Every structure is written in structure tokens, then in C-alpha cells.
């Protein structure tokens, strides 16, 4: 095997470096001593779908068209989930030589799977275990026969939500160990491969769940939880260190190995209700009846009411079917609460990243901002956001506001949000709620954690420099670097660069870099659609991680 890439979703040097110094991560320590390593800059914004897509295409989102978990429907205020069908550029493995065999396990943004010269288990946004998420399709049945039922992301999130924390962590370890078993099985039974990649999303899951146990503000109030769970993240990284060592042993010492993440992670401090702020500024208008529509009186069976209170044993059988009128919150589609004809700007109404869209005439169905005032209006919002101050700290909490054309370039910039917002150290997460007035809030339970701009990059192998710390790395750099290490031509239209400073000069002299003159002309396929039930499944998973609502 020429190249093995191991992805650790959300992994951060903030955890790895202290553990290496403490002697807890011998495999990572060997990469720092015998290879090259550094921080890897993610996409703006540091969200998994655009970040992983930029990783595999070597391009910024303006060239591949993926900007978040959801994409806006043309001339509508509604959105839908993205899939691999929305990626408008080729992944780097499609530029391999025809005889080079490929193995992919759980690489995000590969569902639905497509034919490759090898095998694939799709990763992330896989709606149901009943769907075929492997190539070839027969591999699905083989994995179940040889390894047992394949636990997809949805299984894990559902288990964690129902179980107590200890059982949830057991489920996470089982879910992760299954990916390791699948990777080792494929390498042994389906090889030989020239290129293999496996992604472990458990690092991101455990951080979303457990970063609060590293937060002194939280653990000072909950010391018993710190005693139980204070080491959870560290222990998970230690397990990953062992898994990485097993994979390296399996592929052999002559193989070049890359370990990377799509973004980093860190604790959450506060929520910024961006739509509430837009309402306060007069940019977003709600229908007059919006607040009233949130509450309705509905008849509920007494049996259900008593069950929720864990008092069902005290309810006589004769009263179980009696219905009681009770007030309840009714969830309407958020786009139905907005007075669009008088709204000038709005944040996403479904997912929680820091983006703002202008209600532009001719583009949105009820656009009211003219093309002439578009630029000045964006400047106005940007200036106001940058001047926002957290009343508790007295300091600004918005680090940067970008116009889409300032950070993206390519044919799909027109599909990007108009403004993108980065909070201070990304410790302030975005919330999308429309009702209520308060737009800054300290969560009572600081979970889930948030992402960070800096992911990780480690590389080791016979052609790699030893003990070298790398700087100015971008997630788009891995694709052209991988192609070079595979002995393939590198497409000129990739935005990333070959990380030459990690590779021995002698090797580069003997193997000159060759750029392809061919342009990436991917055939655009119809977007994959999910059923309402499947969408509900995936949205539950995203909500549990803090990406929605």
C-alpha cells in the first residue's frame, strides 16, 4: 500500500499535545518524532460537510458547492440535507491511475456510494441501515455476516439519547470499535489496496458530549461528574492511538500514513441567538400572530400525562383513556412565522451555523432589498455585528464577518450565504430560535461543545522529513499532496498545494511534480432525496450534536 489516511473527526492538538507530553499517546509521539505535523486550517465555517468536501476535492466551497449540512432550495426559503450528489467536484481518488485500488471506510460526504476501483462504506448522513451504503452493494450483507449488524451514526445517537452516560459511552466505544474491525477486515480480505482511508467520527461525538467535563465553571458546580467523566475525552484519544497503531501495523512500515481532522473542537461558553438579534435590529420581521401560534390547547390522554410524570401506577384503569385539555407548544415550520415581504435579512432557520442571507429582490421569492443597496446593506450588518459586546465581559464577541466573495471563489459562490460569521475563539455558538427577546445566553448545561478552526495533520513514511513542525496548512492541501504521493498528476484547478516541506528534498528531485492540464469536469447528478422519515432521523442526530435548533 502506498498511502493510508486516517481521519479523526474534530480532533484537536489542544488534547493531543498535552497527552503526548504525558506519555499517553505513543503513536502520535512517534509521528512527531519520526514524521511531520502541524495545525490544519479548516473551511470557513468549520463544519463537517464543507470541510470534508474541501479535503477530498482540494477545493474551496465556491468550487465544490457545499456550504453546510443543508442547502437552500432555489427561490424558496426552505432547505434540504446535502449528500454526495451535491458535490460539484471530483474527490482526489477519482484522479488515481486506472490500476490503483481504493478502500474507503466512513469517509463523510460519500453517501450515496458510487462505483470505484475497490470497496467503499459510505459515511455521514446515512439515513437508515436499510439503505445500501456500500460499494459493491453485496459488501453490506458480507459485513453483517462476518462482523454483525453495522451500527450507523443514527443508531449511536439514538442509543446515547436513551441511555445513561455510562451506557452511552459504552455504545460509543462499540460504534468506534466496529469501524476499526471493518477497516482491518477490508484490508485483510479485500486487498491489496494502493490507497486506503478510514474516518472515525467518535472523536467529534465524544467532544460534543464531554468537553463540559473539562470546563472548570461547570465542574466546580458538578464535582461528582468531574470525578466520573473528567477523563472521558483523554481516554478516547488513548484508544484511538491504539487503533492507529494497529492500522499501521496492518499496512506495513513502507506505507506513508496521514492522520488528519476536518476541524478542531473546544468548549461552548454562550449562545448567540442570531435571528433574535436581527429582529431587534429591525432586519427580520415576524408575523403578528407568530407568538400566539406557538401555544395551542390539545386534548391528551391522562395515561400519557401520568407516564411522563412516572405516576402511571397511581392512575385507575377506568381513567386511562380520559382526555384532558392541556396547553402544548406547537412547532410550525419556521419559515411560516416570518413576514417575508418586510424582512431584509435572516439567518438560517434550520441549522445553527453563523450565516446571514439577504432577502434580495429577484433571488428570494419575496425579496425586498434592491441590488443597488445590497453591498451597503451587507456593510451595515457587518459593522453592527463587529461592534457587539457581551454585557458580562464588556468585550466584543464577534471575531470576523466575511462577505462570501471575500473567502470563496469559483462558479458556486452565488449559492453561498451572503455573510459568514466567526465568533471569538468560536466559544459562542449560534442558535436559531425566533421567539423571545434575549439574544445572548449562558447555557445551564454547556453541552454540546463547538468546533474550532484548527484541525490536525500528521504524516510519517519513508519519504517524509523527520521531526518537522509544519505551518500554514490548509485542509485543501491534502488532496494534491495525496495525489503526488500516489504518483499521479495533480489537477491545476485545485486550490490546495502539495505540502513539499513535509517531503524529503531528494524524493522530490527524483519524482518531479506533474500538474494535469485536464480540468475537473464532474458530471452533475440529480440530488439524492430522503423520505420525511429519513430526514427526521438525521435531524435528530444533528440536533443532538447542536447543529440544529
Automatic annotation (TrEMBL):
Which one Pfam family would you cite for this protein?
A: Phosphodiest
Task: List, alphabetically, the Gene3D superfamilies matched.
Answer: Alkaline Phosphatase, subunit A (3.40.720.10)
One Gene Ontology term of the molecular function aspect: hydrolase activity
Coiled-coil regions, chain positions = none
Any transmembrane segments, and where?
none
InterPro entries the record matches: Alkaline_phosphatase_core_sf, Phosphodiest/P_Trfase
From the UniProt annotation, give the residues forming the signal peptide. none
Per the UniProt entry, what species is this protein from, by scientific name?
Answer: Desulfofervidus auxilii
Domain of life according to the entry: Bacteria
User: Protein name, please?
Assistant: Phosphodiesterase
Amino acid at each position: 500500500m502506498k498511502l493510508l489516511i486516517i481521519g479523526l473527526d474534530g480532533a484537536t492538538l489542544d488534547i493531543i499535545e498535552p497527552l503526548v507530553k504525558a506519555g499517553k499517546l505513543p503513536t502520535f509521539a512517534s509521528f512527531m518524532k519520526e514524521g511531520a505535523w502541524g495545525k490544519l486550517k479548516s473551511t470557513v465555517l468549520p463544519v463537517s460537510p464543507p470541510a470534508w468536501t474541501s479535503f477530498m476535492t482540494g477545493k474551496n466551497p465556491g468550487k465544490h458547492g457545499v456550504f453546510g449540512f443543508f442547502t437552500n432550495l432555489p427561490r424558496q426559503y426552505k432547505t434540504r440535507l446535502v449528500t454526495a450528489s451535491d458535490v460539484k467536484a471530483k474527490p482526489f481518488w477519482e484522479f488515481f491511475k486506472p490500476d490503483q485500488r481504493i478502500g474507503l471506510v466512513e469517509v463523510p460526504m460519500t453517501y450515496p456510494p458510487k462505483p470505484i476501483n475497490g470497496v467503499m462504506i459510505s459515511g455521514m448522513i446515512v439515513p437508515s441501515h436499510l439503505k445500501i451504503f456500500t460499494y459493491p452493494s453485496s459488501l453490506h450483507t458480507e459485513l453483517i455476516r462476518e462482523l454483525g449488524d453495522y451500527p450507523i451514526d443514527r443508531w449511536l445517537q439514538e442509543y446515547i439519547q436513551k441511555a445513561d452516560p455510562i451506557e452511552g459511552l459504552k455504545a460509543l466505544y462499540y460504534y468506534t470499535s466496529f469501524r476499526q474491525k471493518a477497516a482491518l477486515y477490508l484490508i485483510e480480505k479485500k486487498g491489496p489496496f494502493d490507497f486506503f482511508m478510514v474516518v472515525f467520527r467518535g472523536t467529534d461525538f465524544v467532544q460534543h458530549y464531554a468537553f463540559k467535563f473539562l470546563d472548570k465553571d461547570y465542574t466546580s458546580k458538578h464535582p461528582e461528574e468531574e470525578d466520573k467523566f473528567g477523563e472521558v475525552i483523554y481516554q478516547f484519544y488513548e484508544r484511538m492511538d491504539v487503533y492507529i497503531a494497529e492500522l499501521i501495523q496492518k499496512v506495513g512500515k513502507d506505507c506513508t500514513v496521514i492522520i488528519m481532522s476536518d476541524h478542531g473542537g473546544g468548549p461552548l461558553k454562550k449562545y448567540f441567538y442570531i435571528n433574535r438579534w436581527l429582529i431587534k435590529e429591525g432586519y427580520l420581521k415576524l408575523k403578528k400572530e407568530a407568538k400566539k401560534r406557538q401555544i395551542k390547547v390539545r386534548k391528551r390522554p391522562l395515561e400519557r400525562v401520568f407516564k411522563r410524570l412516572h405516576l402511571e401506577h397511581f392512575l385507575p384503569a377506568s381513567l386511562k383513556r380520559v382526555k384532558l385539555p392541556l396547553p402544548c407548544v406547537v412547532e410550525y415550520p419556521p419559515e411560516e412565522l416570518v413576514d417575508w415581504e418586510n424582512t431584509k435579512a435572516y439567518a438560517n432557520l434550520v441549522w445553527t451555523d453563523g450565516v446571514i442571507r439577504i432577502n434580495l429582490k429577484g433571488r428570494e421569492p419575496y425579496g425586498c432589498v434592491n441590488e443597488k443597496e445590497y453591498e451597503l446593506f451587507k456593510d451595515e450588518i457587518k459593522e453592527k455585528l463587529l461592534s457587539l459586546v457581551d454585557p458580562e465581559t464588556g468585550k466584543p464577541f464577534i471575531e470576523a464577518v466575511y462577505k462570501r466573495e471575500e473567502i470563496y471563489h469559483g462558479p458556486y459562490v452565488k449559492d453561498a450565504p451572503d455573510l459568514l460569521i466567526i465568533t471569538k475563539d468560536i466559544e459562542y455558538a449560534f442558535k436559531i430560535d425566533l421567539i423571545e427577546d434575549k439574544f445572548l445566553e449562558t447555557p445551564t448545561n454547556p453541552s454540546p461543545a463547538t468546533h474550532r478552526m484548527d484541525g490536525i495533520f500528521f504524516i510519517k513514511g519513508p519519504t517524509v522529513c523527520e521531526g518537522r513542525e509544519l505551518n500554514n496548512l490548509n485542509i485543501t492541501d491534502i488532496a494534491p499532496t495525496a495525489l503526488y504521493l500516489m504518483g499521479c498528476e495533480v489537477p491545476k484547478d485545485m486550490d490546495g498545494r502539495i505540502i513539499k516541506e513535509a517531503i524529503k528534498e531528494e524524493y522530490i528531485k527524483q519524482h518531479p511534480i506533474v500538474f494535469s492540464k485536464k480540468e475537473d469536469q464532474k458530471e452533475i447528478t440529480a440530488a439524492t432525496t430522503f423520505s420525511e422519515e429519513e430526514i427526521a432521523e438525521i435531524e435528530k442526530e444533528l440536533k443532538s450534536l447542536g447543529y440544529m435548533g
